């Protein structure tokens, strides 16, 4: 059975800026409003027969959205990106065979992410892993087999990532 939250209708969204480094049209700083759909695959259990209480799942995903909201998202593991952090700024350089760009941005404006890029694909993986971790920390994942995150970059276009939970031993 699946339990689902649609970001558009449940306020699971954030607005952020990013760069798809080296891309023709998306290689400049620009922004999106992102919506997060969450699906949990599992079995109903407990007193109420829930896979998980909607309220709890909403709270977890909203908290993740809040950390990403109103930030310039920077992928710290991008292969063509070098960065250094000084007092209150990050200075980073993107360099490939066609171009070199240097940025200096106040730290409070950015979020450095442990990713190779900030595409919808990468961000959907990042969010799925955070949801998995939080469900495990709260010890409320025992009847959940799988988490699926669809991250919409604007309305109508998104990337979906599905992550399994290792619940065999519980
Ligand atoms: Zn974009």
Descriptive tags:
single chain, 170 residues, alpha+beta, Tetrahydropterin Synthase, Chain A, five-stranded antiparallel sheet, three-stranded antiparallel sheet, 40% strand, elongated, binds zinc ion
Structural class by sheet pairing and helices: alpha+beta
Assign the CATH class. Alpha Beta
Question: What spatial form do the alpha-carbon principal axes imply?
Answer: elongated
Question: What's the CATH H-level superfamily name?
Answer: 6-pyruvoyl tetrahydropterin synthase/QueD
Could you tell me how far the N terminus lies from the C terminus, measured between alpha carbons in angstroms? Answer: 19 Å
Could you please say which CATH topology applies here?
A: Tetrahydropterin Synthase, Chain A
What's the SSE blueprint?
Blueprint: E1 2-5, H1 7-10, E2 13-18, E3 30-42, H2 54-68, E4 72-75, E5 81-86, E6 89-95, E7 100-106, E8 110-113, H3 120-137, E9 144-153, E10 158-164
Parallel strand pairs: 4-8
Antiparallel strand pairs: 1-3, 2-3, 3-9, 5-6, 6-7, 9-10
This protein binds zinc ion.
């Amino acid at each position: 059975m699946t339990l689902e939250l649609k970001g558009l209708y449940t306020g699971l969204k954030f607005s952020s800026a990013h760069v798809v480094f080296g891309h023709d049209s998306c290689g400049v700083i620009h922004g999106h409003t992102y919506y997060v759909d969450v699906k949990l695959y599992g079995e109903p259990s407990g007193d109420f027969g829930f896979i998980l209480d909607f309220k709890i799942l909403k709270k977890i995903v909203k908290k993740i959205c809040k950390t990403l909201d109103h930030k310039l998202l920077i992928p710290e593991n991008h292969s063509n990106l070098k960065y250094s952090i000084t007092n209150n700024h990050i200075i980073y350089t993107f360099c490939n065979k066609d171009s070199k760009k240097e940025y200096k941005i106040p730290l409070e404006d950015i979020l450095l992410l442990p990713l190779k890029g900030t595409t919808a694909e990468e961000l959907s993986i990042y969010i799925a892993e955070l949801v998995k971790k939080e469900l495990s920390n709260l010890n409320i994942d025992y009847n959940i087999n799988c988490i699926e995150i669809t991250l919409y970059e604007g309305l109508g276009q998104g990337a979906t990532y599905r992550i399994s939970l290792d619940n065999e031993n519980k």
